[in-house]
Amino acid sequence: MTLRDTPPFRADHVGSLLRPYHLLEARERRAAGKIDPDELRAVEDDAIRAVVRMQREVGLRSATDGEFRRTSWHMDFIYRLGGIRSTDEKIQVHFRNADGELDFESAALAIDAPVRLRETIFGDDFAFLAATADPEVTPKLTIPSPSMVHYRGGRAAIDPAVYPDEDQFWADLSAAYAEQVRRVADLGCRYLQLDDTSLAYLNDPEQRRLLTQRGDDAEHQHERYIRQINAAIADRPAGLAVTTHMCRGNFRSSWAAEGGYDFVAEALFSELAVDGFFLEYDDERSGSFAPLRFVPPGKMVVLGLVTTKRGALESKDTLKRRIDEASRYVPLDQLCLSPQCGFSSTVEGNVLSYDEEVAKLRLIVETAEEVWG
């Protein structure tokens, strides 16, 4: 097996981590006006130093800030793009879990001015992470993919007076992302991940029905998304590894979509110009490994075999068996191991403890060492 000293690593993780109680408490105090922004940031800084240290101690080669400064994995980024704002309208997302169902309500978005990059989004956050991580650990920045801006509201969220031609919206959005990529690379970022639920959701017939209902081209939406992500990363600097992570929803141990990767697989794996794919594969909702047959040589697949939705620890034997199954479609040397998603895609976090989170990350590292050396 080839030793990997570039991302993605044999043992890796998606990005978000459980927020410690004292951080959640500080956020509540800030919301109530009891502390100022600098005081909250100081609490965040301390919490990030601790979680970066934890990642190093379990043996991970990459580190994130756990997304500790965010409320959600995607909207904290999207609302900072010029031309996009939140609205009073609410979006209802229906989630399911092992015990039943729950609904999540979030603000909608409106695109009412030309989309542009007004600032290096999360630039200060990444600089702090990079300064905190040990030299032998690669700091990783996670941001939502361009697809998520569109999937959130579709054509209906775009003011036709601003963008009578949707192609111009896509050109501006990809240009804004391309500038973001350039700027974070200038800050020293060598590991960037574009998180994307849309490309996984589109495998679910019910999700495609909902998109068709609102007037979008559900049968070809993934092809447009692939083209626009490629446009966003086409000029990335040499030495910047870009991966994408796809899951079917991750909110308080619940999911929103089901289905294997079959619908998008051929276009996704053969055309999306990323260096690696983080794929959700923690249970039967994700389908079989057969769609991986479209992964070309040189592209890495990070198997999300360890669930973040519950605390029970997987067995190494089961993980090794599933890695072996996947290797029937993709050479073992192109595979890595990770959780299926983050542990806390939103500030609330999934239903497991900090100790269980650490145990799962350590299990991934130990299993990867035994499989790949």
Read across the widest sheet, the strand sequence of neighbours is 5-6-7-8-9-10
Instruction: Tell me how many strands there are.
Output: 10
Strand coverage percent: 15-25%
Q: How do the SSEs run, as a string of H and E?
A: HHEHEEHEEHHEHHHEHEEHEH
Largest sheet: 6 strands, parallel
Structural class: alpha/beta
What integer is the average pLDDT? 93
Parts with pLDDT < 50 across at least 5 consecutive residues: none
How many helix segments? Answer: 12
- Give the fraction of residues assigned to helices: 25-40%
Calculate Rg over CA atoms. Answer: 19 Å
Oligomer: single chain
Overall 3D geometry? Answer: globular
Q: Span between N and C termini? A: 7 Å
Provide a descriptive summary of the structure in words.
With 373 residues, the chain is α/β, with parallel strands linked by helices. The chain is built from twelve helices and ten strands. Helix 1 (21-31) packs antiparallel against helix 2. The chain starts with 20 loop residues before the first helix and ends with a helix. The mean pLDDT is 93.
List the helices and strands and how they pair.
Layout: H1 21-31, H2 37-58, E1 62-63, H3 75-78, E2 82-97, E3 100-116, H4 123-132, E4 138-139, E5 141-144, H5 146-151, H6 166-186, E6 191-195, H7 198-201, H8 205-213, H9 221-233, E7 241-246, H10 262-271, E8 276-280, E9 300-306, H11 316-326, E10 335-339, H12 354-372
Parallel strand pairs: 1-4, 5-6, 6-7, 7-8, 8-9, 9-10
Antiparallel strand pairs: 2-3
